Amino acid sequence: MGKTIITNGHFYGLPNVTSVLCENGRILSITPDISRTYNNTIDLKGGWAYPGFIDGHMHLTGLGWSLETLDLVGTHSKKSILSIIEKATLKTPTGHWIQGRGWDQNDWQNASYPTAKDLDSVSSEHPVVLRRIDGHALWANTRAMEIAGISIKTIEPKGGNILYDELNKPTGVFIDNAMTLITDYIPKSTENDKYRQITKAQTLLNSLGITSVHDAGTGVKDIRAIKQLIKENNLSVRVFAMLNDTPEDYEPFLEKGPITHTPFLTVRTLKVYMDGALGSRGAALLAPYSDDQHQSGLLFMNKDELAAIVQTFNSAGFQVNTHGIGDRAIRIILDAYEESGMKEMRNRIEHAQIVHPIDLKRFKKLGVIPAMQATHCTSDMPWIGERLGVERLSRAYPWQSFAQLGNPIPGGSDAPVEFPDPLAGIYAAITRQDSLGWPDGGWQQQERLTLKQAVQMYTEWPAYASFEENNKGKIDVGYYADFTVLDRQLSDENPKMILDTKVIQTIVNGKIVYQSYNETK
Ligand SMILES: [Zn+2]
Q1: Are 244 and 269 in contact (CB under 8 A)?
Q2: What is the 276 CA–ligand 1 centroid distance (Å)?
Q3: What CATH number has the domain bearing residue 464?
Q4: Which of 29, 63, 187, 431 sits CB 3.0–4.6 Å from 201 for a disulfide?
Q5: 414 alpha carbon to ligand 1 midpoint, in Å?
Q6: Tens digit of pLDDT for each residue in 89-106?
Q7: Distance 229 CA to ligand 1 centre (A)
């Protein structure tokens, strides 16, 4: 393949550099002799090359799956959803499952939960399951509940809720672990399905400038599909996998040990869940929800259970990344990490949304990484005040507090929960405003990040959180030749300009994997 000169551009953090030389997927020189000719040339056409953007928490096959199912994101009424389902029934063979995602009752005029009966009015022949925007609640029709054998006698699993009507019958909404009562009956994705989903997801990700992802829940089938894509030389995002907390997914790795020195796939992490999410009141809080005094969230395990997992995995060379959103869940996770975690394993708390002030400093002390998603904050801010009440709002999404304490904060989208656009993430991180600039000055504006920090959130910080700070996150000799090329320099002077910024090229391993214009030959 020989050497590739990437030329005629600007390079983030390197004011005097206009060209970079690459070989075998890595940067060979940032001061190349540009009077020479090289085997290959990539012309940046005056664009601004940033270190390749990393999505530090997303769901790779989940994103691909979402591109193949009904998209309900942005629907503003139950009626509009029902008409989407009705249309889908006309195109789907009778008896086949209809799946969708993205409903959010908070966006409806009547913000109460929907029911199976609503769906039955447009679909009696097809089982229908629709996931809530955050993936933490499932809305099913009667046909789906029949297939799953749901009745008045069905027992709620640990860490799950079934909603009931006044006659004590399940209404059709299943929260967190109760979702599996239905989803266990949906035909499982095959390795071929996973391969196709990853292919679709990476095309979208590359078009948004993403060169690496942290996959927050990887199974053996996903890994086989990823390895197949690597073998064919067709994987165009580097994958840092977090293994699912199911024995069939983690046991083979626990036996053989982590996979660390392959450029496109790293497997050295376990993903577990401590609580649910705020939207469905599943996040475990220290005090009850302000808009439902009977609820303070769901815990999926206790401290001792997590401490035992951490002990097993850390001592086998695996990082543990625990989903923790509410302040109660976060405290328990920190306690478990403190009891049996190893600092050098860089254990993480995924989301870390509501943090009690007492617990903020424990992250740095214990070497625990808060992995946070900027657009969760700006999506949640319109309704989160009702859930938490005024006093607790200053503990919500405390990015700048964490940064001031010296914590790296890997950013991410949690796609398909949020659209995986890193520029939208950078904008949200520096403004804490929606795309229209609401609210004035930013929501809990003291926690905004600077532009430099926001760029770190999608480059250096996720690189550190995946033990890849010597390979990724910077433009320097020896680093991977991964670049996100923008049509302009990012600036915080007029933050809305960030939303108008275009990705013109995405370069992975020294090769163009996306460009927004056609090459003229
Ligand atoms: Zn997630």
Answers
A1: no
A2: 11
A3: 3.20.20.140
A4: 63
A5: 5
A6: 998 889 899 999 999 999
A7: 23
